[in-house]
Amino acid sequence: MQCNDDTMSTSKFKTIYVFCGSNLGKKKSYQDYAIDLGKEQVMTNINLVYGGGNIGLIGLISQNVFDGGRHVLGIIPKALMDKDITSLTIGEVKSVIDMHQRKTEMSSNSDAFIAMPGYGYGTLEELFEVITWAQLGIHNKPVGLLNIDGYYNSLLSFIDQAVEEGFINPSARHIIVYASNAKELIEKLEDYYPYH
């Protein structure tokens, strides 16, 4: 982990939406880097938008960002609140009608997106939707993968194969930014330039 505690700096991002699981995962490194991401957001004055809840990796990130004095916004569809699958939400809670409204709200309330390891089909769908929106020019916000211990290597290889086979434009491949630690990833996201 490379969380630098020496000085606080200000990122060009006001808020980042973090996709992350409600499980901790089998490796302690996932938990360590989740905490590191939260601390890095605090140190660079970045607020958090997330899917709500206080369990799993997202609970670690949201608690660290909240404890560090940054604004935390959880956007939760009413159907998920009723099932109590998110547990308590840290910070401000915004209830929305459905997943479509959630995606619209998360996009309009954030300057960049980061996907941590540890999510299911729903979050994969959300991740690929924001990538697709970038490809179509609906937004110009960077999308980053925190590639802890090579977690995303298979996904990145699959995308590279789709480029090689002619199904993804090579310039669109650059929509996805990735790094193995939070500090480097945020720096790369800040340097991102829309491909289109």
Automatic annotation (TrEMBL):
Biological process terms in GO annotation: cytokinin biosynthetic process
Repressor among the record's keywords?
Answer: no
Q: EC number(s) per UniProt?
A: 3.2.2.n1
Q: Does the keyword Hydrolase apply?
A: yes
Its cellular-component GO annotations read: cytosol; nucleus
Q: Which reaction does it catalyse?
A: N(6)-(dimethylallyl)adenosine 5'-phosphate + H2O = N(6)-dimethylallyladenine + D-ribose 5-phosphate; 9-ribosyl-trans-zeatin 5'-phosphate + H2O = trans-zeatin + D-ribose 5-phosphate
Alphabetic keyword roster: Cytokinin biosynthesis, Hydrolase
GO MF, one example: hydrolase activity, hydrolyzing N-glycosyl compounds
Write down the InterPro entries for this protein, in alphabetical order.
LOG (IPR005269), LOG_fam (IPR031100)
Give the record's family classification: Belongs to the LOG family.
State the function annotated in the UniProt record.
Answer: Cytokinin-activating enzyme working in the direct activation pathway. Phosphoribohydrolase that converts inactive cytokinin nucleotides to the biologically active free-base forms.
Q: What is this protein called?
A: Cytokinin riboside 5'-monophosphate phosphoribohydrolase
Native organism is Dioscorea cayennensis subsp. rotundata (White Guinea yam)
- Gene name for this UniProt entry: LOC120270935
